[in-house]
Design brief:
By secondary structure, this protein is α/β, with parallel strands linked by helices. It folds into two domains: 251 residues, Rossmann fold (3-Layer(aba) Sandwich), CATH 3.40.50; 202 residues, 3-Layer(aba) Sandwich (Rossmann fold). The protein has 14 helices and 17 strands. The strands form three sheets. Strands 3-6-7-5-1-8-9-10-11 form a nine-stranded mixed sheet, with helices on both faces. Strands 14-13-12-15-16-17 form a six-stranded parallel sheet, sandwiched between helices. It has a two-stranded antiparallel ribbon with strand order 2-4.
Length: 459
């Protein structure tokens, strides 16, 4: 691939800034900063979530291979420097007024909840006729204008737009240059209100190619009536990030920090605090097996998303959801069997994987589920909702254990199955997962995405 200039657009920024340079009461960040001069963990942190964990390694890989001349990344980040320099990449941040942000947040959450089946499509039918929806459009227009300004100066070869929050951007760019869109959340035509369908078709038709995370979503786009090029590329992570295993001392320190008993059997749930992630399903299953599996403990890792952070959209759903989970655990009589860690560092997360006996992805609906791939890389058996995109990679009993999240007894049965296993099932799941992880590796994805880029730019 000839060297190209790439523009990436996501809602969630690559990095979130934790404080102002001289402390909480100092003036705002300068308009432009060099990230290499700041300290990770004190000045900033990398945003959690699959999009940032995928896109950043991809850009670094393609740059190191000589495929990218320059990459620029535009995202929502209202309390950050407008421009951030990294080696081989520049971040550009946009923001809108708090009043407008509230309307944008309301609209995007309604789209999210409808797509995930949290609310019925009837309750969202008139969404795009509301005042809040105008703020969703305004945010996307603001983003598109920033991208057009950058393009006038830098002359990009390809625009790579990510996820439903940015869906209108492709149409708003007003350019014939190639535009690629990646849809990350679930896509089910049956959940989409009738009044949304022509809007979605119009926005999607502005892109030259659509990338989805499973074959099922590709078929659903065809059912919607979308006729442009659609390709399935599995989400991915970089296995190199997991080559350094935590030592016994690091694992012990994490156990002491979060109060994990030494002899406990640990089921690990890694997900942001959100009803779509199904932590309540895991609690119900735990209550079902609390007598049969007295040593079992569930450790819930995660806090809010960028949308829930004070530096992001400012929604508070993560705090509300955690409070509801804690109350459910109390009512079910399993409060002493669950631990909530909140946000953890990557080193702490690696140690928690090392300490766990198995992992659970209990989502009621999930675009893909990269935590399953993490489990495979960490050589941990994974219990996986059949509502996740990753489920199409799983053969029950060979590389994972599947369950229906609407039937807690199904998850409880899989919990008993893995905890009471004599070792043969665990070994089979670990080895099968190790093989399956190759389909979701950065090496595989870089080759596939490079082919997509080449096709679009050279067409």
């Amino acid at each position: 691939m000839a060297k190209m200039r790439l523009l990436v657009n996501t809602q969630t920024p690559l990095v979130q800034f934790l404080r102002n340079p001289a402390g909480a009461r100092s003036p705002a960040w300068p308009a432009e900063v060099d990230l290499t001069r700041l300290k990770e963990g004190a000045d900033y942190r990398f945003s959690p979530g699959g999009v940032t964990r995928m896109v950043y390694p991809l850009i670094r890989r393609l740059t190191s291979e000589g495929g990218l001349e320059e990459a620029h990344w535009v995202s929502l980040n209202p309390n950050a420097p407008s421009t951030v320099r990294l080696p081989g990449m520049t971040l550009h941040h946009v923001g809108i007024d708090p009043e407008r942000m509230a309307g944008y947040g309301t609209t995007k959450e309604a789209i999210w909840a409808t797509a995930h089946g949290i609310v019925g499509k009837g309750s969202s039918e008139g969404l795009f006729w509301t005042d809040d929806a105008t703020e969703y459009t305004f945010y996307n227009r603001t983003t598109a204008m920033r991208i057009r300004e950058l393009d006038a100066d830098l002359d990009f070869d390809l625009f790579y737009i990510h996820d439903f929050q940015q869906l209108p951007v492709g149409q708003m760019l007003g350019t014939l240059k190639p535009k690629l869109f990646r849809w990350h959340i679930p896509f089910d035509v049956a959940s989409i209100p009738d009044s949304w369908r022509p809007i979605f078709r119009r926005y999607l038709s502005a892109y030259d190619r659509i990338v989805v995370s499973s074959d099922r979503y590709r078929r659903e786009l065809e059912r919607l009536g979308h006729r442009s090029d659609v390709v399935r590329l599995y989400p991915y992570i970089d296995p190199a990030e997991y080559q350094i295993r935590p030592g016994a001392a690091e694992v012990q320190a994490v156990c002491e920090k979060f109060g994990i008993p030494r002899k406990a059997t640990v089921g690990l749930v890694v997900a942001r605090m959100d009803p779509t992630k199904g932590q309540d399903r895991a609690l119900e299953a735990l209550a079902d097996v609390k007598v049969a599996l007295p040593d079992l403990r569930l450790v819930f890792v995660g806090n809010g998303s960028f949308s829930s952070s004070k530096g992001g959209v400012g929604l508070s759903k993560s705090e509300r959801w955690r409070a509801r989970l804690e109350e459910r655990a109390r009512v079910a009589g399993v409060s002493d069997r669950v631990l909530f860690t909140g946000h953890v560092t990557q080193a702490e997360l690696d140690a928690l994987y090392a300490r766990s006996d198995f992992t659970i992805l209990p989502s009621v609906n999930e675009g893909f589920g990269l935590v399953v791939v993490e489990s495979w890389i960490h050589r941990r058996p994974a219990l996986v909702t059949d509502r996740a995109g990753v489920a199409e990679l799983i053969e029950d009993g060979e590389n994972g254990l599947l369950f229906d999240p609407d039937h807690p007894t199904a998850l409880a049965r899989q919990m008993r199955r893995i905890v009471q296993d004599d070792g043969a099932l665990r070994r089979r799941l670990v080895e099968g997962g190790r093989r399956s992880a190759r389909a979701c590796s950065l090496e595989t994805a870089a080759r596939q995405e490079r082919e997509v880029f080449e096709h679009l730019v050279e067409a």
